[in-house]
Amino acid sequence: MKKIGLTTTVPVEVLIAAGYTPIDLNNLFITSSDYLKYIDIAERDGFPKSLCAWIKGIYGACIENDIKEIVGVMEGDCSNTKSLIEVLQLKGIKVYPFSFPHSHKREDVENEIRKFIDIFNVSIEEVENSRKRLNEIRTLSKEIDELTYIHNKATGFENHLYQVSLSDFNGDLNTFEKDLKKIIYDIKKRKPTDKKLRLGYIGVPPMTGDIYEFVEDLNAHFVYNEVQREFAFPRADKAASIFDQYYDYTYPYNTEFRIKELKKQIKNRNLDGIIHYTQAFCHRAVEDIVLKKQLDIPILNIEGDKLNTLDARTKLRLEAFLDMLLDLKEIKR
C-alpha cells in the first residue's frame, strides 16, 4: 500500500478504502529518538525560529522520510498549514486538500467529505466498510479510556498514547489492534491507583510527554485527554454515517461546540482541575481566555516549544497549581 502523510486527523476511512497507508506526520515527528533533526531540517530550509515547532517538525518528517503525498487540512486546524503546504509543493510533494468547514453545518461537512471521496475515486459503500472496520479498533481505545477514568488502572500517558495513535492506527490496522488487546489485558491485571487529584488535559497533544509521569509523582492522575480522545472518535458508534461522525468531532470546529463536550467530561470524570497545554507561536493559545471564562474549574495554562521535556519553570508552576488543588479539596471536605 502507498504511504500518504497527514498533517492532522482526517477521514482516514477514505484513504484506507483507496488503498493508502495513512502516516500521521505529527506522530512520526514526536516519537523519533532524534526529533530535533526534523526541526533543524525545516530551519535550514528557511522556516523561521518564531514558528510553531510542530509545523517545522511535520515538514522535516515529511522530507526526511520521503513522503511523496500528503493530505493538508486547509481549514479547521493550524493556521500555518497553508504556508507549509505551499513549501511542500515546491519540493514536489503532491498535496490533497481537505477542510473542516468553519460554519460547522452538517451539509457543509458532508460536502467536504464527498469532495474528498471523489478525489480518491472510491464509493461511499467502500468508505462505510472501512469505517466499520476502524470503529471496531476505536472501541478498544474506549476501553482503555474507561480503564483510566473509571477503574484507575491505566496511566494518563497510556490514555494519551493509545488514543492519539488512532489518527493513523500506527500505519498497520491489524498489528495495532493486537497491540491494543494486549495492553488492555495487561492493564486489567493491575491494582487501581489511588491519587488524590483527578486532572484533565486539554489542548493539542504535548511536546512534553513527561508531564504525565511528573504529575503522578505529585499525587495526581490525568483521567481525561481531550483532543487525543477526539482523535479516537469515542461517539463513532452513535454516528449513522461518516458525515455524522466527522460533524460530531469537536477538535476542528468552534470553541463553543468544544466547550459543551468539555463540560460534560468535567462532570462525568469528576475532575479537580485542568492543565491547558498550548504550543508557542500557535493561534490556539488565545482560546485559553474563552476556556477560563466558560469552564467553572481551576485551569493552568502551560506552553511548550521545542523541548520534549518539561522545563524547571513549568515544573514549579505545575507543583504550585497542584498544591492549590489539594488545598481546595481539603477545604471542600
TrEMBL record:
Cofactor needs: [4Fe-4S] cluster
Keyword Metal-binding: yes
TM annotation in the entry: none
Entry keywords, A to Z: Iron, Iron-sulfur, Metal-binding
Coiled coil feature spans: none
Example of a GO MF term: iron-sulfur cluster binding
InterPro entries assigned to the protein according to its UniProt record, in alphabetical order: FldB/FldC_alpha/beta (IPR010327)
Claim: Iron is one of the keywords in the record: yes
One Pfam family this sequence matches: HGD-D
Family annotation (PANTHER family): 2-HYDROXYACYL-COA DEHYDRATASE, 2-HYDROXYGLUTARYL-COA DEHYDRATASE, D-COMPONENT-RELATED
Family assignment from sequence similarity: Belongs to the FldB/FldC dehydratase alpha/beta subunit family.
Official protein name in the record: 2-hydroxyglutaryl-CoA dehydratase
Native species: Clostridium taeniosporum
